[in-house]
Amino acid sequence: MSFIAVIDYGMGNLRSVVKALEYVSEGRAQVTVTGDPDAVQASERIVFPGQGAAGNCMHFLRQNGLDEALREAAASKPFLGLCMGMQALVDFSEENGGTECMGLLPGRVSYFVDTFASSEPTPRLKVPHMGWNQVAQTRAHPLWRGIADNSRFYFVHSYYVVPEDAELTAGVTEYGIPFASVIARDNIFAMQCHPEKSASAGLALLGNFVRWNGTA
To answer: How far apart, in whole angstroms, are the C-alpha atoms of residue 207 and residue 23?
Structure first.
C-alpha cells in the first residue's frame, strides 16, 4: 500500500482533497493529513495543498520544521503542489508586503491587480480569479494522461506564479493575461487550480498522481 501525506499547515479544509485521493486510489493508498515532519519523511507521495496568505503559510512551515521536510521530499518523491502549495515552491511572493518562499523552483508570485493596472486588460476582470477556466497543456506530462487539452479546472486565487524558466511551464490559463497555471520539473508537479473540485478532469489528474513514479 502506498502512503500519501497531505500537508496541513493550519489553513483550509483539507477534507475534499483527502476524499478525492481516497476515491481515485481505490483502496491502494493510505492518505494521511499531517503537519509532522517525520510523517512527511515516512510517506511515499506528498500532496501540498492550501489556501490563505503566503506569509502565514511560510511562517507555519518554518516554525514547525515542515519547510526542510518538504525540501527533502521534493528532492526525490512524487510531489503535487496545489494552489498555495504551488506558490510556496518558488522564490518569492509579492503577498503580505513580500514573502520569501521555499525556492525549490525559480520564479516569483505576482498580484493580478497590479498586473491588470499596468496591462489594462479589456474588460477589467475581477480579482480573485474565481470559477472554472481552461488549462492549455504546453507540454506532455504523465499527469496529463487521459485529460483533454483545454479541459476546465476550478480556480480561486488573487496571485499567480511567474516562472523564471519558461521550460517549467506545463499548463497555461488566460485571465486577462496568459499565466502559468501549471509548472513541473522532474518529480514535482504543481497547479494553481483545485483538482479536488474540478470534476472528472481533476479526479483523472489525481488518479494519475497516485500511480505516478515521479519521472517525467
So the answer is: 9
**CA 161 – CA 107 distance, rounded (Å):** 7
Question: Is residue 216 situated within a structural domain?
Answer: no
* Average pLDDT score, the chain: 94
Q: Which three cell numbers stand for residue 11?
A: 489553513
Between CA 58 and CA 62 the distance in angstroms is 6
DSSP secondary structure letter of residue 126: P
What is the rounded radius of gyration, in angstroms, for the C-alpha atoms of the chain? 16
Catalytic machinery residues = 83, 194, 196
Sorting pLDDT into bands at 50, 70 and 90, what band is 122?
A: low
| Residue 114 forms part of a structural domain | yes
Question: In the chain, how many domains are there?
Answer: 1
Indicate whether this model's pTM tops 0.85: yes
In a domain, 55, yes or no: yes
180 domain-assigned: yes
Can you tell me the distance from the alpha carbon of 147 to that of 145, in angstroms, rounded to the nearest whole number? 6
